[in-house]
Amino acid sequence: MTRTPDGHPDGPAHDALREQLGAHALGQLGDDERAAVDAHLAGCASCRAELAEIAPLAGPLARVDPDAAPSPSVPPGDFAAVLGRLREEDAPVTPLPTHRRRRVPLLGAAAAAAVIGLAGVGVGVAASTAGEPPVEPAAVQALDPGIRADAGTIDHTWGVEVVLTASGFAEGQRYEVTVLDRAGRPVPAGAFRGTGAAEMVCRLNSSVLREQAGGFVVTDADGDEVLRSRFA
Amino acid sequence: MSDAAGTARAPVNLRRIEDLEAAYRDHAGELERFALRQLRDPGAAADVVQEVFVRAWRHAERYDAAVASLRVWLFTIAKNVVVDHVRHHRSRPGTPTAPGDLPPASERDFSDDLVTSWFVEEALTRLGDDQRSAIVETYVRGRPYAEVAAEQGVPVGTLRSRVFYGLKNLRHIMDDMGVPL
């Protein structure tokens, strides 16, 4: 065995001890082997440093599942739902660039409202301001007589945005908004808190594309439907 | 990769919807796979991802690229959301997870292992076959060196050497990924 001037193993002997550091870090050495490596470590700073580098891997490695199926790749998710949640926090959110959509004549919405023909029906005519994508009005039917509401939709590339202008939702109570696709399947579009008599404007985003969206419903904390809207 | 490019260009500001959406594009898929692995519930996993980005936006000022890569930071949030989810559903079945706050960075508990093990698993896939199988067979599966060495047709010393260099490489890969150990 060759040795360094300070008496430690050098060359192949050192390499042999050094290459045991992996098994040492993983607790795989027998008592004698371990004692030999420990004796070497006591006098070899570079091996101590190498051991310190790999030793923290032992814990996490022990929890790796060797038989776990490779995780399936997940299709790109629903960023619109995130945006909806952010709007729910009533935060200033920078609008995303969206393509313009031809404004639908208000008559269409009025006709839709007339077709529903129920008490409490309102017609949402949310005005579109300059620089914003156009808001298409949507028919709204409140099931609670205290609620007055108008609604409109904005056609974004990532899904339909619902603009709900309303008063009469119980102050502080949480309401969930769910967009229904043309087949009636529910897709969460976020939530808001009622503001009582004060008028509120909330913007809720869903991942359902405008042409596939049939309307939306608002449900209260008990899950009861309090408002329904049908898109033209 | 995207982390390095992202931090090299301009500071990431997750309050900006463009930055948040870019982070979503880069990491939502992997985060969802992570949540799915932990919860085994696709609906819950999707909820976790949504909550991660809401919290990331809410606590954007806490993100410091000098301290952690964006990916590691998002995974740390995801871990917290997953843990919240599990705790919540243990105590109140059938109710949605209440959005919680990020715990202080010093709070290290068992759940940190979730994230580290996830990254270790990924780092393992980047190792060469010899080194990976040496570590997986002898340590993760706990098989005797002699048996694995015979199966792979190499001396025990060679297998040990593969474990050692494999661990060194693993550590470098983890460091490159910005995962603290």
What's the layout of helices and strands?
The complex is a heterodimer of chains A (232) and B (181).
Chain A lengths: L10 H8 L2 H5 L5 H13 L1 H10 L3 H5 L16 H10 L17 H11 L4 E3 L12 E7 L5 E9 L2 E9 L6 E8 L4 E8 L6 E6 L7 E7 L5 E6 L2
Antiparallel strand pairs in A: 1-2, 2-3, 2-9, 3-4, 4-7, 5-6, 5-8, 8-9
Chain B lengths: L1 H8 L7 H23 L2 H17 L11 H22 L20 H14 L3 H12 L4 H8 L3 H22 L4
Helix pairs in contact in B: 2-3, 2-4, 3-4, 5-8, 6-8, 7-8
Tell how many strands the DSSP assignment of chain A holds: 9
Biggest protein-protein contact in the assembly: A-B, 45 and 49 residues
Query: Strand-and-helix sequence of chain A, N→C?
Result: HHHHHHHEEEEEEEEE
Helix fraction of chain B?
55-70%
How many DSSP helices of chain A? 7
Q: Flag low-confidence runs of chain B.
A: 1-8, 92-111
In DSSP terms (H or I, runs of 4 or more residues), the helix count of chain B works out at 8
- H/E topology pattern of chain B: HHHHHHHH
Could you give a quick summary of the protein structure above?
The complex is a heterodimer of chains A (232) and B (181). Chain A has 232 residues and is of the alpha+beta class.
What would you note in describing this structure?
The complex is a heterodimer of chains A (about 230) and B (about 180). By secondary structure, chain A is α+β, with helices and mostly antiparallel strands. Chain A contains 7 helices and 9 strands. In chain A, strands 1, 2, 3, 4, 5, 6, 7, 8 and 9 form a 9-stranded antiparallel β-sheet that branches. In chain A, a hairpin with a 5-residue loop joins strand 8 and strand 9 (about 225-230). Chain A is rod-shaped. Residues about 90-130 of chain A have low confidence and may be disordered. With about 180 residues, chain B is mostly helical. In chain B, about 70% of the residues lie in helices and about 0% in strands. In chain B, helix 2 runs antiparallel to helix 3 (about 40-60), helix 3 packs across helix 4 (about 70-90) and helix 5 crosses helix 8. The two termini of chain B are about 20 Å apart. Mean pLDDT of chain B is about 80; it is low at about 1-10 and about 90-110.
